[in-house]
Amino acid sequence: MPYKFATQDHPYTDFASGRVIYNLPGAPAFPVRLASEMFQRARALLPGVPRLAIYDPTCGGAYHLTALGLLHGAHIGAILASDVDEAALETARRNLS
Q1: Calpha distance 47→89 (Å, rounded)
Q2: Per-residue confidence of the chain (97 residues) as pLDDT tens digits?
Q3: In a 3-state reduction of DSSP, which class is residue 56?
Q4: Which of 75, 78, 79 has its CA nearest to residue 51?
Q5: Cα distance between residue 8 and residue 3, in whole Å
Q6: Cα(54)–Cα(76) distance, integer angstroms
Q7: Rounded to whole angstroms, how far apart are CA atoms 63 and 58?
Q8: Minimal CA–CA distance to 83: which of 69, 96, 73?
Q9: Does residue 12 contact residue 66 with C-beta atoms inside 8 Å?
Q10: Angle 63-72/32-45 helices, nearest 10 degrees?
Q11: Bridge partners of 76?
Q12: Bridge partners of 78?
């Protein structure tokens, strides 16, 4: 998929697990650049909505939600997250706080 918005491939090392955002051992971290691209595409499709709400029903540790909040917080009205794994939700609470 060609990127329209997240056109620069930043290393995002500040978002590495344990430096700014916590992650569960063995849990994959969603690529920050791809998450940013998807969010910006959604914003482009909804030009009349100044602040979007994001919901992730299987958030895990909320790694990508946290990264989106840090990158695009001015355009986010609410971040909602859920998961069946209580340990993942505890990590998500830490990250989103």
Answers
A1: 32
A2: 788 888 877 766 666 555 567 877 777 667 888 899 999 999 999 999 999 999 999 999 998 899 999 999 999 999 999 999 999 999 999 999 9
A3: strand
A4: 75
A5: 9
A6: 7
A7: 11
A8: 96
A9: no
A10: 60
A11: 52
A12: 53
